[in-house]
Amino acid sequence: MDMDWDFDDEGVQKLTSPGEVITSATQFMRGHGTFVEDNDVVASLSGTIERVNKLVSVRALRTRYHGEVGDLVVGRITEVQAARWKVDVNGHQDALLRLSSVNLPGGVQRRKLESDELEMRKFFEEGDLLVAEVQPTHGDGALNLHTRSLKYGKLRNGQLVTVSPVLIRRRNSHFCSLPCGVDLILGMNGYIWIAKHVAENQKEGEEGFDAEAVYSNKNDDIDMETRAAISRVSNLIHVFARRSIPITDAILAEAYDWAVQQETSPSDLLRADVGDTMVAMVTALA
């Protein structure tokens, strides 16, 4: 069988399906999502082909999140237990956030007291959204999280959008600000948080730690213009996700500018014809 895949450039990704021959097993090594048959590397699932040096693997298009130490994730509290919270991070099982891994009133370095454990729902309760960092995992594969940095913690004033984790690429910073006045948190687990922009000088610093403000469940007043911007960005993410296009702040900024220039409402972006036109224009500029 002729093999059409060109591996001259590392990082080039192409779609494949189960049973399709990817390349020769005499030249490349098989990785996850592949098997060897008749000296060929063959795909065992649908996804994108990835090459690192001589290792060829297939990353599934629809998959659960498999965490790595240092990943930034967005999650939702599912259960409050003794001295810890369980957090949905789009994985095969809930992650764990321990009481010792969060900032508490009185300073980040102080010891956790029994009274803190009795008041855990004052910090996080079921349904709360948060951004955290992945720590070393348990033996059973459960992820450990921490929110000890003030850039992590409870999320307010925004909207959660879920995409496949394969669409989020690792980058230097997963905190992004768009020119339209919207902040993004691109969770490696496929959970994306869209919120109104907060200037750096308005964010809480460790010296001025205010537990009541940081752990508040009350949203700020959000003007209609900002609400429309959040809705437009949310729908743009849905448009790209449906077409399996990786989500970045750069492509969202380009798409947002196009939507504004075309005077396209947030709801119209979800129309198939509008979405196809927008994707074609934006990807041509990339």
Draw up the topology in text.
Blueprint: E1 14-16, E2 21-24, E3 29-30, E4 34-37, E5 40-43, E6 47-52, E7 55-60, E8 72-81, E9 84-88, E10 95-102, H1 114-118, E11 129-135, E12 144-147, E13 153-154, E14 158-162, E15 175-178, E16 182-186, E17 191-196, H2 211-214, H3 224-242, H4 249-261, H5 272-285
Parallel strand pairs: 3-7, 10-12
Antiparallel strand pairs: 1-6, 2-5, 4-5, 6-7, 8-9, 8-11, 9-10, 11-12, 11-13, 14-17, 15-16, 16-17
Helix pairs in contact: 3-4, 4-5
Protein name: Exosome complex exonuclease rrp4
Organism: Calocera viscosa (strain TUFC12733)
Keywords: Exonuclease, Exosome, Hydrolase, Nuclease, Nucleus, RNA-binding, rRNA processing
**Strand-and-helix sequence, N→C?**
EEEEEEEEEEHEEEEEEEHHHH
Outline = flat
Task: Find the count of extended strands (DSSP E, 2+ residues).
Answer: 17
- Return the CATH topology of the largest domain: OB fold (Dihydrolipoamide Acetyltransferase, E2P)
Q: Helical region count?
A: 5
Mean pLDDT equals 86
CATH architecture of the largest domain: Beta Barrel
Polypeptide structure, described:
By secondary structure, this protein is of the alpha+beta class. It folds into three domains: about 15-60, Beta Barrel (OB fold (Dihydrolipoamide Acetyltransferase, E2P)), CATH 2.40.50; about 70-215, OB fold (Dihydrolipoamide Acetyltransferase, E2P), CATH 2.40.50.140; about 225-285. The chain has helices at about 115-120, 210-215, 225-240, 250-260, 270-285, and strands at about 15, 20-25, 30, 35, 40-45, 45-50, 55-60, 70-80, 85-90, 95-100, 130-135, 145, 155, 160, 175-180, 180-185, 190-195. A hairpin with a 2-residue loop joins β6 and β7 (about 55-60). The longest helix is centred in the last third of the chain and has 19 residues, at about 225-240.
